[in-house]
Amino acid sequence: SHVKHATAISARARKVQGKFRTSALVTMASSSSSYVNGKADHHDDHPQAKRTKWVVPSSRMAKNTHNPIRAIVDNMKIVPNPDKKMIALSIGDPTVFGNMLPPPEMEEAVIECVRTQKCNGYAPSIGYESARAAIAKYYTRPEAPLEAKDVIFASGCSGALDLCISVLANPGQNILVPRPGFSLYKTLGESIGVEIRHYNLLPERCWEIDLDHLQLLVNENTAAIVVNNPSNPCGSVFTKEHIQDILKVAEKHRLPIVADEIYADMVFSGHTFHFMASLTTEVPILSCGGLAKRYIVPGWRVGWVLIHDRHEAFEAEVRNGLLRLSQRILGPNTLIQAAVPRILQETPQAFYQDTMALVQRRSDKHPSLSANRHTGMGLGASAAGSG
Predict the structure, then answer these.
(1) What tens digit of pLDDT does each residue of 226-249 get?
(2) Cα separation of 277 and 324, whole Å?
């Protein structure tokens, strides 16, 4: 009797299994469809999807990405009039005409890295330890100390900005950026579904931030405030007092700051640049910088993020998030980042002074620019590239 009972159960199981297989095949066949030109094309008599045309769409991220500066520059084909002297308004690259060159100490530092043949392999995604330690030492301040662990290398300052915006904001959230301002903030944010909200700068106040307008833009979906100082394209340099007022707003709303400080220390005589992180012990700040502007080598593509944490606000997720994001492309060129310690140590102070003196002299030759020199940087930001 036990054998008959077991046989009956086995037969029923096979019958159920057969029905399940039949049902699954029917379901698969009925749900089979191909998508041609965005429209579903159902084939009841074909179990497999069949495409009749080659249609390969781009991703939503690609469709949402637009860089207005590069859209012009990358497609620019101009043949100068041979009968007239060209007036070059530049394309944001101070190296184009060969009249602004990096110091020989920088060249030798890179050449030495090539000769050692020790920098030809992969580096850690966040950069060489020695290079990060050199950056931390150079930019540390008593009020804002840094260690190697607080430095993340990136492909230029634009790469650093990309890391910061990507690590802080989710699709559907918003970030606050200056107007007028660097268009890349919008490019980077909108490509990942982040809303860009523009706060006004006040020309009558040397392009200071309209703090009342800034606060009107803050809501529950605001992820961060982007502050660009010295300013591109305005050429202004914020006073210590104005920076402190900005920080009060950030502290009030508990918003981290992404400080675009690629033009750090590039100011005319009589003006002083202040790193934002040096003026607060409350607001967490991600500061973005690089070699491009001050060292006149935008094509070398070395930038960095300086993590100025406060109250361990970045500790739980942001630090690890920056590490994960940096692992997507494994950092900038190894030869250049390996040369960074020597570049920082051996570049003579006279090089920085001579560079700004040259920019100031040329600014004085143009009345419209000279009149604006009270803002602090003048032409320093007119060579506005991608950082």
Answers:
(1) 999 999 999 999 999 999 999 999
(2) 24
**What pairs with residue 153 in β-bridges?**
304
Q: Are 144 and 238 in contact (CB under 8 A)?
A: no
Q: Can you read off the two tokens belonging to residue 328?
A: 């997507």
Q: Dihedral (C-alpha) 188, 194, 199, 201: value to the nearest 10 degrees? A: 0
Q: How many CA atoms lie within 13 A of 80 on its CB side?
A: 8
Q: In the beta sheet, which residues pair with residue 70? A: none
DSSP string, 308-365: E-STTTTTTTHHHHHHHHHTTTT-S-HHHHHHHHHHHHHS-HHHHHHHHHHHHHHHHT
* Strand segments (E) across 174-279: 174-179, 195-202, 208-209, 222-228, 257-260
pLDDT tens, residue by residue, 65-100: 887 766 666 666 767 788 888 766 656 677 887 878
Residue with structure tokens 């039949």?
22
Q: How many CB atoms lie within 10 A of CB 321?
A: 15
Give the whole-angstrom CA distance, residue 28 versus residue 357. 73
Q: Can you list the alpha helix ranges (DSSP code H) found in the chain?
A: 2-31, 60-63, 68-73, 104-116, 129-139, 156-168, 184-191, 211-217, 240-253, 318-326, 334-346, 349-364, 367-370
pTM, to two decimals:
0.81
User: What is the C-alpha to C-alpha distance for residues 81 and 78, in angstroms, rounded to an integer?
Assistant: 9
Helix (H, G, I), strand (E, B) or coil at 306: strand
pLDDT score for 9: 46
pLDDT in tens, 44-53: 555 667 888 9
